[in-house]
Amino acid sequence: MKKSLKKFLAGVLCFGVVGISAAGTVDAAKIPDSAGAEVTGKITAEKLTLTKNWDKVFAKSDKVNHRKVTFVNRYGITLAADLYEPKNYSGKLPALAVAGAFGAVKEQISGLYAQQMAERGFLAIAFDPSFTGESGGTPRFMASPDINTEDFCAAVDYLSTLDNVNPNRIGIIGICGWGGLGLNAAAIDTRIKATVVTTMYDMSRVIANGYFDYEKDAETLKRERQQNRINLNAQRTADYKAGTYKRAGGVVDDPSDMPQFVKDYYAYYKTERGYHKRSLNSNGGWNVTSAISFTNMPQLTYIDEIQNPVLIVHGENAHSRYFSEDAFEKMTGVKRSGLDTVAGNKELLIIPGATHVDLYDNLNAIPFDKIESFFKANLR
């Protein structure tokens, strides 16, 4: 193939045929928008309204500094975050971006993790994902395997530009559904030097297959997915007719007839322990049609190509433990053996007796000492 044709095809594959400069890159200033005006390609932040009060579900530490910050992701959505840093530090700090659980806000689980890690010498941000909490983006209460993975990468963009952060010492922590999204981010973003995921869900898998898919045969899974597609697309039609998006509802108000793990969710999200007015799980939940993209786009496809260290933490008695065990096996080719399984620079740590929700806020169950030592060893 002629060199000129190869160059043209590379440009088409990467950028499309409009606005490709002689160097093979897009000249954004020459691409007209729908009104005929010229697009500058400038990163512009949305104006967000951020609360000035401490409204977390956990107590404020006197060992850290705290402030609100914002940053913009690659889709132009401005994200709101709480930044925690140790008091009386010197030099450039290792930094962490923290998110989760799926349907929670930064005033809940991720903020607790971030504050704990700041007490241990890290600069840490806990952010609200796109379309949720204090972050921007419309319509509200939507989720996306692509955009939410990008949220992690945008957090790394932001941390990389801070004067008091060493850009070569950045890691992430993903909790629950943001555990799977964190692994997805680590698979694409080589700037993430170390990753910790706790009590993880693979949201693509659970939405497509339902809970405990290993108990179902292939034909049952196909039938369930097809019915799920029918229901979701019918909801799209209904939403468009109504001019609004139906929400799925958060954690149930009466879990008495539900499995134990649903009762555990209720005990966190619907009681004083963890309730927050901006939390989707505490209130109206996601838009129903958020599930469509997760059903069609497996998010852990390339995690076996993650070269940087990963620590996966899960509770021994968690209903969701199989997500972590299978992700670890996919990354390493090694099945879990005992409570602590190591394969190269990947580790699966099972916490004895712990449930899924124990790793949200139970300081006696969350292995912060282990998480600290893991990051200190790998963000050097």
How is this structure best described in words?
The chain is globular and about 55 Å long. The longest helix has 25 residues, at 218-242. Among the domains are: 1-32, no CATH class; 64-202 and 299-378, Alpha/Beta hydrolase fold, catalytic domain (Rossmann fold, 3-Layer(aba) Sandwich). The protein has helices at 3-15, 109-119, 145-160, 177-188, 203-209, 218-242, 260-269, 291-296, 321-332, 358-361, 368-378; strands at 64-72, 78-86, 93-99, 123-127, 165-175, 194-198, 310-315, 340-343, 346-351. Strands 1-2-4-3-5-6-7-9-8 form a nine-stranded mixed beta sheet, sandwiched between helices. The chain has eleven helices and nine strands. The model is unreliable at 12-29 (pLDDT under 50). 33% of the residues lie in helices and 16% in strands. It starts with a helix and ends with a helix. The protein is α/β, with parallel strands linked by helices.
